[in-house]
Amino acid sequence: MSQVDDVKTKMNSVISVFENALNQIRTSGANPSLIANVEIDYYGMATPINQISSINVIEGKQLLVKPYEMRVVKDIEKAIFAANLGLTPQNEGTQIRINVPPLTEERRKEYAAKVVKMAEEAKIACRNARRDGNDIVKKDKTIPEDISKDLVEQIQKATDEAIKRIDEITAKKNKEIMTV
Asked: Is the CB of residue 112 less than 8 Å from the CB of residue 81?
């Protein structure tokens, strides 16, 4: 049974990574997760912006980034530019203001297509976990044939459930993106 649990754990991990990646895709308004994981060089280490500053939403249309150390303001500004998120940071000396423009129809479609692509990559990762789990089960000659067949069926069922969850998450995100 541990093979099935291992496969489920891998698939749940894939889904978590997928969901976290989706948080960085804009829907309508300003959201701190848009820039939270953009990394800067902080004392020689790549560090996400949200670990060295506070990120607040102002009036639903702006992000205000207030670094805990003023010396990193320029580094944060450069990192946001370099992340190519379609956002323009405005350095105000001690903080950075980012106006988040409304999405155009064309941009919404681009983001929706990106979500579908990311979903397909997550599904492929789940199928790879299924294949690896099946290989382990089939190569283990200590497992009786009927139990082996049952394990393969359980792995397939877990795969189907994971892919269904990915599809549900994708549909929800695309609905958010396309809602004006």
From this structure: no
Give pLDDT tens digits for 46-68: 889 889 999 898 887 888 999 99
From the CB of residue 124, how many other CB atoms can be counted at a distance below 10 Å? 11
Q: CB of 3 within 8 A of CB of 131? A: no
Token pair belonging to 104: 């155009």
CATH code 3.30.1360.40 region(s) in the chain: 32-99
CATH no. of 2-23+104-178: 1.10.132.20
> Can you give the pTM of this predicted structure?
0.73
Under 8 Å between Cβ of 66 and 56:
yes
Q: Fold for domain 32-99?
A: Gyrase A; domain 2 (3.30.1360)
**pLDDT tens for each residue of 120-143:** 999 999 999 999 999 998 888 888
Asked if 60 and 30 count as a contact pair (C-beta separation under 8 A), the reply is yes
CA–CA dist 30, 175 (Å, integer): 17
Beta bridge partners of 161: none
